[in-house]
Design a protein that fits this description.
Length: about 475
């Protein structure tokens, strides 16, 4: 009791706030006692205050109904030094408050130690990539969590495991990936294979540009042909390095540039040769004009291909698919028309015209089909292999069987048929290959997913929402 008396005397004014006391405690909120009067109270008053506090503590532990209002209205200036306390509060010193009753455990939850062991096992399943087992175990743990924080943690990880399982994801070590296309797709950046192909073809373009320059300048020495070509080959590779500096080129853009260059080159060759074959010799274009048209169409094709790939997005498979469609469409149509046309002076004109039309038809068809089909680069290579094999088998078998009596039109027709058959067979056999949707596949899988979580905090809770719209 002496410690309580010292605490009362040490403050200038003691305020008993009933907000910290149970509702059935009869101490008024605004009542106060001047320390000067408290200093003159005898030990009975000290016992009185201690009794009031004990009664309030007992009422907080085991409420038994409201106590009668026993808070006196104190007047420090008029109160005598030895004024006896009210009889209602001096009857006897209250007994010490009984201990608080122990809190009952939640019968649904499990022990914290047991729950932690099960949680660690489920977490190990998640880290091992067994998303289905992890989802089931974490969902079960959320039902028997010992507290709200543990329940929120289990729910979050269960949602994560369910999301990864639904997307068909797997864990692969970064060193095992190397520079695979899956890593390039994830960040929408070209792979090392793509940029290597672009560097190689940029050197080819530079050498071709050197040849075009030699035709225009007509040098009188070998150095005039070779040195400019070497310099332009190096300059083309340097231009690629500049384009790829800073942020690398987008996924599929290098292949789009290469395919565009070869489609443009094919267009220049076919239409230039078609014009030369249908006109008289005196009306034919000069060598400089032909070289300019071929080089210009290849340059325009590379620029258009790069622009479409950068703005609209593409994949190496789609870009290569368009280039292959242009090549095979021109060959099949050109050889087919030549096989059907009679052998005369107009046969080559018709064949080149058919090749030009077939090539452009292949480009248009591939542009329409590339998005829905979205073949991988591997599937395009298998298609190319099928076209080559079909043409060689059909044409080679006919020439071998016919011997010296083989007919050119029949050989062209069978070769064209063999190419078409090989392409169709390869298309059918490669249907099971996984398509390459590019960088947009990740965002499309996440579209519309909204995850919610509730976490308890002091005095309330926090609602969190995350996802992709």
């Amino acid at each position: 009791m002496s410690a309580l008396a010292v605490a009362l005397a040490g403050s200038r004014r003691l305020r008993l706030d009933t907000e910290q006391l149970p509702a059935n405690c009869g101490v008024a909120r605004a009542s106060s006692v001047d320390t000067r009067a408290v200093g003159r109270l005898d030990t009975k008053v000290v016992r009185l205050v201690a009794g009031v506090l004990s009664v309030c503590a007992s009422a907080a532990a085991q409420p038994t109904g409201a106590l009668p209002d026993a808070s006196p209205t104190a007047n420090p200036s008029a109160a005598p030094p030895a004024s006896p306390p009210p009889p209602a509060l001096t009857a006897a010193t209250p007994a010490p408050a009984p201990p608080l009753a122990p809190q009952q455990a939640n019968p649904v939850s499990v022990g914290t130690a047991s729950w932690s062991e099960r949680y660690q096992h489920a977490r190990e399943r998640l880290l091992a990539g067994d998303f289905q087992s992890a989802e089931q175990e974490l969902s079960d743990l959320a039902q028997v969590a010992p507290g709200p924080i543990e329940r929120s943690l289990a729910v979050e990880l269960a949602h994560l495991a369910r999301t990864w399982r639904s997307r068909g994801l797997v864990f692969v070590r970064n060193k095992d990936l190397g520079d695979a296309s899956i890593k390039a797709r994830a960040v929408d950046e070209r792979s090392t294979d793509e940029i290597a192909v672009l560097y190689l073809n940029s050197v080819v373009y530079g050498l071709g540009t050197g040849g075009w320059l030699a035709v225009q300048t007509e040098p009188d020495s070998a150095a005039g042909y070779i040195l400019p070509s070497l310099a332009l080959g190096g300059a083309s590779a340097g231009a690629v390095a500049i384009l790829d500096s800073g942020r690398p080129l987008r996924y599929g853009v290098p292949q789009s540039i290469v395919s565009g260059m070869y489609v443009g080159l094919s267009e220049g060759l076919v239409w230039t040769f078609w014009n030369q074959s249908r006109t008289d010799r005196q009306d034919e274009w000069s060598g400089k004009t032909v070289a300019t048209l071929i080089w210009g169409s290849a340059t325009a094709g590379a620029i258009v291909g790069g622009a479409i790939g950068s703005t609209s997005g593409t994949t190496p498979g789609r870009a290569s698919f368009i280039g292959s469609a242009a090549l095979w469409g021109g060959l099949v149509a050109g050889m087919g028309v030549a096989a059907l046309h009679e052998e005369n002076y107009a046969q080559d004109d018709a064949a080149l015209l058919g090749a030009g039309i077939g090539m452009n038809a292949g480009v248009v068809g591939a542009l329409l089909a590339a998005g829905p089909v979205s073949p991988s680069i591997a599937r395009v290579r298998f298609l190319d292999l099928g076209g080559i094999a079909g043409g060689l088998v059909f044409g080679g078998l006919y020439i071998s069987a016919a011997g010296d009596g083989s007919d050119a039109r029949a050989a062209l027709g069978l070769t064209s048929l063999g190419i078409a058959s090989g392409l169709g067979t390869a298309w059918f056999l490669t249907e099971s290959l996984e398509p390459d949707r590019g960088a947009d596949s990740a965002s499309s899988n996440r579209s519309g997913e909204i995850a919610t979580a509730i976490a308890p905090t002091r005095g309330g809770f926090v609602l969190r929402m995350s996802g992709w719209l």
